[in-house]
TrEMBL record:
It holds the Pfam family GREB1_N. Residues 1-11 have a biased composition (Acidic residues). Residues 2-152 form the GREB1 N-terminal domain. Residues 1-27 are annotated as: Disordered. Coiled coil: none annotated. One of its GO terms (biological process) is kidney development. This is GRB1L protein. It comes from Odontophorus gujanensis.
């Protein structure tokens, strides 16, 4: 069983944060910000008019990348691992799919964030880097919706 604890740094609050270093991408993988390791575009601006098939029980959500502050990356996440409107009732863990290349079954957010080249500077705490629900307008355009309400 993988030991993939995703707790926040427990260091003294007065000490500087310890930078989080991710494993390098496998050789031959795309490492461009905004694209998955298979080289598929994940930016909302590129996907806003695309028809995206997601499995039952999954929602499209947007992640914010520190390296692309002006862009939102589109992700498919099992809604059981997302909080309700009050920031509660999210199951611990993660289940997500890459909407770029279609790879499914990511069980750890660290593994998923590596795949989508979400270059994190701090140890991830759950999937709090997922910031927005994505919604489709009546014209079929996908856009940023309400904030995901993560509570401590």
């Amino acid at each position: 069983m993988e030991d993939d604890e995703e707790d926040e740094d427990m260091s003294d609050s007065s000490s500087p944060p310890i930078p989080y270093s991710q494993k390098p991408a496998p050789e031959g993988s795309c490492t461009t910000d905004g694209f998955c390791q298979a080289g598929k575009d994940l930016r909302l601006v590129s996907l806003c008019t695309e028809q995206i098939d997601i499995p039952a029980g999954f929602l499209l959500v947007g992640a914010k990348s520190p390296n692309l502050p002006e862009h939102i990356l589109v992700c498919a996440v099992d809604k059981r691992f997302l909080p309700d409107d009050h920031g509660k009732n999210a199951l611990l863990g993660f289940s997500g799919n890459c909407i770029g290349c279609g790879e499914r079954g990511f069980r750890y957010f660290t593994e998923f964030s590596n795949h989508i080249n979400l270059k994190l500077t701090t140890q991830p705490k759950k999937q709090k880097h997922l910031k927005y629900y994505l919604v489709r307008s009546s014209q079929g355009v996908l856009s940023k919706g309400p904030l995901i309400c993560w509570k401590g």
